[in-house]
């Protein structure tokens, strides 16, 4: 009796995983995405043709930063990371 219930469960499970169900859904979703992509490309081409999309020119914007402090914190981070990895390896060996 348990064999028949087991077989019905497995056939139900295999029907749920039928690839054709997923493939149809994937294809329909992909068609929608392709449609969006086509419309976006056409809009961009239209804007380029109309001259609406141009590169901005002007002075370059910079952010004043302390580069030495950045280098020190990067080295400190790398050394700490290396030491942590060495401790993990050492713990695995022991």
What order do the helices and strands come in, and which of them pair?
Blueprint: H1 2-16, H2 19-50, H3 67-93
Explain this structure.
The protein has 94 residues and is an all-alpha fold. The protein has one domain. Helix content is 79%, strand content 0%. The chain is flat, with a radius of gyration of 30 Å. The mean pLDDT is 82.
Could you state the order of secondary-structure elements as H and E?
HHH
- Strand residue percentage: under 5%
Low-pLDDT windows of residues: none
Overall mean confidence score, pLDDT = 82
What is the terminal separation in angstroms?
Answer: 53 Å
The assigned structural class equals: mainly alpha
Query: Over all CA atoms, what is the radius of gyration?
Result: 30 Å
Kindly state the percentage of residues in helix: over 70%
Describe the structure using short key phrases:
mainly alpha, 79% helix, 94 residues
Concise overview:
The protein has 94 residues and is mainly alpha-helical. It has one domain (7-54, 67-93). Helices cover 79% and strands 0% of the residues.
